[in-house]
Amino acid sequence: MARVWVLALCVSTVIADTTTTIPDYFQTSFGPYAGGYETGRVPFLAQTNPALSAQPTYVPNGPLVTDIPVPDKPEGASIFSHMGNLSPYRPNADGFGVDEYALPYGSNITQIHMVHRHGSRYPTSKPGVVDRINGFIENGTVFTGNLSFLNSWTYQLGENELTVRGRQELFDSGILHYYNYGQLYNPGSNLIARTTTMVRMLQSAESFLYGFFGSKWTQNVTLEAIIDSTGFNNSMGGDQMCTNAGNGRGQTSGSATDQWKSIYLQDATLRFQNQSSGRSANWTVDDLNDVQSLCAYETSAFGYSPFCLLFTWDEWLGFEYTLDIQFYGNNGFASPVGRAIGLGFVEELIARLIQHLPDPPDDSIAFNTTLDDNNSTFPLNQTIYFDFSHDTEIFSMMTALGLSKFGKYLSPTELATNRSLVVSNITPFGGYFLFEVIKAPYPVLDQRPRNSSDSPYDTSGNSTSYVHMIMNQRTIPLGESIPDCGARDDGWCELQTFINFQQQNVDKANYNASCFGDYSTPGYGNITDGAIPNS
Ligand SMILES: *[C@@H]1O[C@H](CO)[C@@H](O)[C@H](O)[C@H]1NC(C)=O
Ligand SMILES: *[C@@H]1O[C@H](CO)[C@@H](O)[C@H](O)[C@H]1NC(C)=O
Ligand SMILES: *[C@@H]1O[C@H](CO)[C@@H](O)[C@H](O)[C@H]1NC(C)=O
Ligand SMILES: *[C@@H]1O[C@H](CO)[C@@H](O)[C@H](O)[C@H]1NC(C)=O
Ligand SMILES: *[C@@H]1O[C@H](CO)[C@@H](O)[C@H](O)[C@H]1NC(C)=O
Ligand SMILES: *[C@@H]1O[C@H](CO)[C@@H](O)[C@H](O)[C@H]1NC(C)=O
Ligand SMILES: *[C@@H]1O[C@H](CO)[C@@H](O)[C@H](O)[C@H]1NC(C)=O
Ligand SMILES: *[C@@H]1O[C@H](CO)[C@@H](O)[C@H](O)[C@H]1NC(C)=O
Ligand SMILES: *[C@@H]1O[C@H](CO)[C@@H](O)[C@H](O)[C@H]1NC(C)=O
Ligand SMILES: *[C@@H]1O[C@H](CO)[C@@H](O)[C@H](O)[C@H]1NC(C)=O
Ligand SMILES: *[C@@H]1O[C@H](CO)[C@@H](O)[C@H](O)[C@H]1NC(C)=O
Ligand SMILES: *[C@@H]1O[C@H](CO)[C@@H](O)[C@H](O)[C@H]1NC(C)=O
């Protein structure tokens, strides 16, 4: 019986493949641009959990062992909040420097525009340290002390796919956003949500939509998959169409991250060398930085990783800062392609806000015109826009949006303690930003009244619309980056002011020169506005 059933399944698959009339962008099976992907070892945490803390943590639906007792860790803190783009999802506990307010009575949220990162995944390639460790062992190194487990360790991670935790992050986010915005969806309508063709991108969008709409989500949404591969135009994967992003010319962080790693990992390197006996192992700072990433990856894949015990609290803060420098120099205001990579989303956001198909100047087209010139693939009549993308791309979207709050110089020799640019808070796995469009009956006061019985409105004015930007559940103060928005204590910006500013951002990306110009990689810190300067 089982055999017959399998056969029938194969036949129907073949028929579906040969007779399909669905255009490529609405096909969400893994196709030719899915990229490589591989599943790793299946977890068995009940058997591998080391029960590190005296009191077990019976936390609902929190499978990962994250209460790692690293030396010098402040009470209540967690290294998993400091792993940059490898952090499992959690909101910024401190917020972004502005208070959160309830929507004033009488105002309505009329639209949301979201860009969501994929969830926790396996590495995109095997970290270099894996072959180094095997080489040390082949050369006769015997590991001692905290490193002893390495004598029998093997690499068992997969590649590129979501881990189960990643699926959970997106599913939970879909549920969170259904609670927050469910009524914006008109049950009779069909939405277009957009992701890319890569496996983790499809898996993430599907988990989110399942969380938001339930298991029959395909009745409510059509998922569009934009080709995510070198040379293709893709607003959710802007590096693929920007030559100087793909070839590395626009990435300025290398010398700076090397410098910083040699500082924050100096002690740890000596410690590792000291715990490698027999024939000594020549651990480098790059090896150790990779080892830190293995803690993040193994925990997400298996629930627990012994690599997490090998570093002090300050070394984790150092790891986090390395990633901040990297994003700043490769996708932020210190990169000549920082704005260009994210420009397509800005052009699309303007189009959606003014309900007019995107039409930037010919030398600044940062999306696929086949898709965006067509209202069946780029509709303008939605109240909910769900897009899915990658960490570096989302960071570049923030740059293209002109969020200069996250654009201040980061020293490669000294950890900048009060910085806003903390990748852990911006693009953790399963992170997102979204814009709420809010229609208020009158202008909302710049400073909300202290007394909750006082009106938050200037009732002498007219109905006014605003945008409220949220990143990982916390408000971004738009006025800190866009002076015309004003120093509002709710972080909002008047809608037309915001649109005007975004329209100016299209030129600031200097798209053609930045992406296709023939220049040598600028020194770290020489670029300050995310683009090759307009001459
Ligand atoms: C192993 O030893 C060889 C010969 O000394 C050396 O060239 C190689 O770099 C060593 N491998 C590692 C990973 O250190
Ligand atoms: C999804 O669409 C179905 C069919 O139109 C509808 O019955 C259902 O209510 C919709 N789901 C939500 C969450 O609105
Ligand atoms: C937008 O318009 C199309 C075509 O009329 C319709 O199928 C779709 O449901 C509409 N979307 C929304 C969100 O109303
Ligand atoms: C634009 O998207 C369409 C539909 O997926 C695809 O066939 C085409 O190759 C894309 N064009 C570019 C330049 O990426
Ligand atoms: C190396 O190990 C020895 C013996 O365990 C210890 O006394 C010494 O402090 C260690 N040195 C470093 C740099 O960790
Ligand atoms: C250790 O590795 C570094 C970087 O690969 C290299 O520069 C150095 O010469 C090596 N030292 C020894 C003792 O092999
Ligand atoms: C390594 O092991 C020693 C001895 O068990 C311990 O005191 C130390 O804190 C451990 N961790 C690190 C990061 O060295
Ligand atoms: C792809 O992007 C390039 C660079 O902006 C643009 O010249 C071209 O018209 C775009 N093609 C499509 C099909 O989007
Ligand atoms: C797309 O545009 C056509 C022509 O302007 C219009 O008839 C149709 O209703 C639109 N569909 C959507 C999905 O908005
Ligand atoms: C908010 O929505 C309610 C209910 O649809 C409506 O009566 C009210 O006029 C709306 N307010 C604004 C400012 O548009
Ligand atoms: C309110 O709108 C009316 C009509 O558009 C306009 O004449 C008036 O100046 C506006 N008032 C304010 C305070 O902007
Ligand atoms: C960085 O800027 C300085 C001063 O403008 C210039 O002298 C230097 O050549 C630049 N370095 C690089 C690598 O662009």
UniProtKB/TrEMBL annotation:
Residues 1-16 form the signal peptide. SUPFAM superfamilies: Phosphoglycerate mutase-like. Pfam families: His_Phos_2 (PF00328). PROSITE patterns: HIS_ACID_PHOSPHAT_1 (PS00616), HIS_ACID_PHOSPHAT_2 (PS00778). It is an enzyme of class 3 (hydrolase). Gene3D superfamilies: Phosphoglycerate mutase-like. The keyword Endoplasmic reticulum does not apply. The keyword Protein biosynthesis does not apply. It comes from the Eukaryota. GO terms for molecular function: acid phosphatase activity; inositol hexakisphosphate 3-phosphatase activity. Keywords: Hydrolase, Signal. Its EC number is 3.1.3.8. InterPro entries: Acid_Pase_AS, His_Pase_clade-2, His_PPase_superfam. Belongs to the histidine acid phosphatase family. This is 3-phytase. It comes from Talaromyces proteolyticus. The lineage of its organism: Eukaryota, Fungi, Dikarya, Ascomycota, Pezizomycotina.
